[in-house]
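Quick review question:
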């Protein structure tokens, strides 16, 4: 296996552009620019490759053919309605099929390279469109690139694929696609569906008949900070991954759990997000011989948060993590200020938050995070042969 890290990138990935919309491609542009200026993309063993669009045969492993037809047709029909398209969440835009297929192709290329041993890790920061369903667009997502990449891995012979989603929103589309497939473990940490789109991701969603225990959901209360998030993550994710024994790890690394994100109510910092990426890499190293495919996802603090968070992700994937105290380069600050005038451009790669946490214990006076952890462990741990009350599990 090669020790290289593949970064799938081309400026054409920015063409997934819904216009005046929260999912603004400038966040991806500024991420790549920041990573370049900090030298992350010039490290030894880092290979940048241009993506190719996923073809219909690849996309229809997840999406219905009539839905693909609708995505192609919608930009030509000003009165188009249906399939979740033409809404405020998913407006129709020119080149919608082509740009969506390219993002899916980028995630497929990343997964193929890691599975075939051409790279140990791979990243598609433009990916992570985890809400798209087989027959409709949802939550700013047209084609579900993580699900398409997982389906491709199964076609290549993978028997145990783990998917961990740390976006603030439940990874509902990926869970839906593989809910009845015991070969795929989907794990999602997110803000409670009682307070946030898409309204799914409760602890009792544990997998369909024949695949019980293949879906793991940790819904966290609004206001959860780094310490609570890390406490929940480490109380659930390592245990379920070790029980499942994945051959490869895919992650959706949405940055919208940050306290500055305008669309959600968790209180994470970029320091806490960096700690999560380090934990995911360590689990891939422990369980999958390092095989890790990472995508971006949500994130709507376009200048203040997303570029820093995903540059940390790229650094963790490509080698040594960046020192949180690293200054953001002056050239990048100028670019960010030009692209989004009036935004507060961060001066350093840190929020000056210590993401340390106290490990979860089944005893004592539980807080709201502990109750969420206990609910998840009670629902799914027995299905995986784990003891929900033993903190060693």
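Suggested answer, residue by residue:
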């Amino acid at each position: 296996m090669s020790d290289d890290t593949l970064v799938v990138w081309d400026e054409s990935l920015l063409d997934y552009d819904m216009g005046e919309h929260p999912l603004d491609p400038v966040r991806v542009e500024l991420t790549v620019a920041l990573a370049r200026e900090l030298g992350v993309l010039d490290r030894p063993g880092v290979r940048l490759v241009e993506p190719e669009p996923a073809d219909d045969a690849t996309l229809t492993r997840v999406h219905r053919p009539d839905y693909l037809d609708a995505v192609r047709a919608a930009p030509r029909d000003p009165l188009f309605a249906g399939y979740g398209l033409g809404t405020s969440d998913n407006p129709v835009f020119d080149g919608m099929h082509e740009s969506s297929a390219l993002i899916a192709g980028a995630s497929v290329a990343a997964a193929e390279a890691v599975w075939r041993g051409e790279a140990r890790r791979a990243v598609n920061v433009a990916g992570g469109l985890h809400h798209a369903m087989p027959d409709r667009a949802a939550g700013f997502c047209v084609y579900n690139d993580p699900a398409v990449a997982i389906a491709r891995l199964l076609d290549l012979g993978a028997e145990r694929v783990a998917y961990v989603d740390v976006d603030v929103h439940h990874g509902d589309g990926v869970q839906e696609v593989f809910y009845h497939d015991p070969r795929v473990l989907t794990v999602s940490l997110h803000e409670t569906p009682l307070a946030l789109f898409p309204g799914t991701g409760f602890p009792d969603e544990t997998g369909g008949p024949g695949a019980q225990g293949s879906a793991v959901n940790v819904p966290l209360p609004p206001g959860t900070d780094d310490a609570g998030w890390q406490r929940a993550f480490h109380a659930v994710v390592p245990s379920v991954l070790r029980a499942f024994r994945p051959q490869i790890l895919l992650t959706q690394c949405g940055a919208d759990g940050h306290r500055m994100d305008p669309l959600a109510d968790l209180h994470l910092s970029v320091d806490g997000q960096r700690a999560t990426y380090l934990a995911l890499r360590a689990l891939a190293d422990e369980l999958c011989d390092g095989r890790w495919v990472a995508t971006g996802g949500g994130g709507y603090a376009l200048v203040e948060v997303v570029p820093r968070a995903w540059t940390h992700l790229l650094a963790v994937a490509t080698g040594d993590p960046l020192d949180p105290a690293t200054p953001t380069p002056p050239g990048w600050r100028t670019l960010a200020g030009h692209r989004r005038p009036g935004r507060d451009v961060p001066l350093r790669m840190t929020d000056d938050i210590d993401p340390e946490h106290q490990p979860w214990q089944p005893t004592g006076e539980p807080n709201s995070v502990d109750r969420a952890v206990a609910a998840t462990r009670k629902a799914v741990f027995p299905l995986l042969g784990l003891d929900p009350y033993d903190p060693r599990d």
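Why it works: The chain has one domain: 5-384. The domain at 5-384 is CATH 3.40.800.20 (Arginase; Chain A).
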